[in-house]
């Protein structure tokens, strides 16, 4: 399971999220969908649970949502924002 790294500071609202990596002095911003997923991960939900919630909220086929979310999570991992 991928989790946000504990040293990150995050602000999430309906417009998205801002993630501050203090150790690298770097800020990453996410759109509202990215903020939704990030918030669910911070709450301890699995990627599968976050995908299901997003699919339900947006009334989108879960298979379509899953592809986008998996790509998004891989991008966050490559940027060092999620544990592997």
What's the short version?
The chain is α+β, with helices and mostly antiparallel strands and 84 residues long. The protein has 3 helices and 3 strands, in the order βββααα. A hairpin with a 2-residue loop joins strand 1 and strand 2.
Record keyword descriptors for this entry.
three-stranded antiparallel sheet; alpha+beta; 84 residues
Describe it.
This protein is α+β, with helices and mostly antiparallel strands and 84 residues long. It is globular. The model has no long low-confidence stretch (mean pLDDT 92). The chain has helices spanning 32-42, 47-58, 62-78, and strands at residues 8-13, 16-21, 26-30. Helix 1 crosses helix 2 (47-58) and helix 2 crosses helix 3. The longest helix has 17 residues, at 62-78.
Helix/strand layout:
Blueprint: E1 8-13, E2 16-21, E3 26-30, H1 32-42, H2 47-58, H3 62-78
Antiparallel strand pairs: 1-2, 2-3
Helix pairs in contact: 1-2, 2-3
Strand content: 15-25%
Tell me the span between the first and last alpha carbons: 8 Å
Mean pLDDT, nearest integer? Answer: 92
Uncertain spans: none
Summing up helix and strand content along with how strands pair, one would put the structural category as alpha+beta
Can you list the strand order of the major beta sheet? 1-2-3
Sequence of secondary-structure elements = EEEHHH
Give a count of the beta strands, DSSP E runs of length 2 or more.
Answer: 3
User: Per the principal axes of the C-alpha atoms, what is the gross shape?
Assistant: globular
Helix content: 40-55%
Radius of gyration: 12 Å
Number of discrete helical segments: 3
Largest sheet: 3 strands, antiparallel
């Amino acid at each position: 399971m991928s989790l946000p790294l504990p040293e990150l500071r995050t602000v999430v609202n309906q417009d998205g999220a801002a993630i501050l990596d203090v150790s690298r002095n770097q800020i990453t911003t996410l759109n509202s969908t990215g903020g939704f997923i990030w918030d669910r991960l911070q709450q301890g939900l699995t990627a599968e649970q976050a995908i299901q919630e997003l699919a339900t909220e947006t009334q989108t086929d879960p298979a379509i949502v899953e592809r986008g979310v998996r790509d998004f999570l891989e991008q966050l991992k490559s940027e060092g924002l999620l544990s592997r």
